Amino acid sequence: MIGGLIRALDNVLGRGDAAVTVPPLDGALRPNRRLDEASWRLPLADVDCLAVVAGEVVASAGSAVHVLEDGRTWGKRGAYESAVTCIAAIGGEGLAVAFDTGEIAVVGGRHDGRRYRASEDARCITALAASGKDLYVANGSATNGAGDWQLDLLQRNASGSLWRIDLETGASTRIADRLAFPSGLAVDAAGLVFAEAWTHRLARIDFSGPA
To answer: What pTM does this model have?
Structure first.
């Protein structure tokens, strides 16, 4: 009962789990000025995500994907009918491109031309990561699109999910849910690391442990 009263008070005062402010960086995460102190910059309007494919730097911006040419200028690699929400390299030659419709297309490499969906309801794809035959997908919210992240934050939503897609068969499995806007993925030797934006944390799913 006391716990319920504390949560209700937190909701009124906007503190604790109900806070929508970003806490100061402490512990293992420290602020730095590396972007501010970069020796040169490459302007690209609406740039959102980066990936390295076959040694080339590619970036998504709006409904297009661009490639860095000569290390100094951006050239358009592909244009699409829907807004691109994130990209990720697959193997050595392929690029996975996620759209605001929830569809994911692969350009180049072994799976060139294939299209996937984590789920019919997963339409807020915020991050992708590939490992072997698996493509990992972060769906930030079950109720808001990727462009409505501010609304999702103010609503204090925790309806995000993580998915694993078999690139060979297209089969999709949900591996985590009830997440507060997962928005970053990385695969390492131990498992899948994901950023949970609204709780300001990094977490890991251990592949060697129980699902």
So the answer is: 0.84
